[in-house]
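sorry for the late reply, my laptop died twice this morning and i had to redo everyting from scratch. anyway the thing you sent over, i finally got around to it. pasting the sequence first so we're on the same page, its 160 residues, then the predicted structure underneath. double check i copied it right bc i was rushing
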Amino acid sequence: MSIRLVRVDDRLIHGQVVAVWLRSVGADRIVIVDDRVAADPFLVEVLTLAAPADVAVEVLDTAAGAKRVMELVDSADRAFVLVKTPATALALLRASVPIEVLNVGGMGAGPGRRPLHRNISASEDERAAMREIESTGTRVEIRVVPDDRPIAFASVDRRG
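ok and here's the structure:
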């Protein structure tokens, strides 16, 4: 499979993604799937410029993103898929995109979110989406950087 990693990171392309994750997974393409971001030409340009020059960047809405990721599954391109929320990852799964592992690495504090693990926070809706993702057989793991030991979402999920 040419999908090297599917990661939830609300910052999308930033130093950690560029300096550490791209190299670790050996990706030569970043596919960002997010409806709001795809609809903002300025943000698309900023994200494209934030990636290394030799890494292709595609920013797509959920429907187009699901189709594109499916095309990349058996391609020679090594793709790194970034989504801002677990809900988008769930939408990709519902569109038959195969995701063996969902990496949760960047979900900061904010309105409606409460701590999940260290500096990762999630709303109840985000937690419910991750539970549903797990129910499909996809492993949901918290891992900020590749050297971190993966933490199973279920081991830190506290309802209520």
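The longest helix spans residues 124-135.
thats about all i looked at so far, will dig more tmrw
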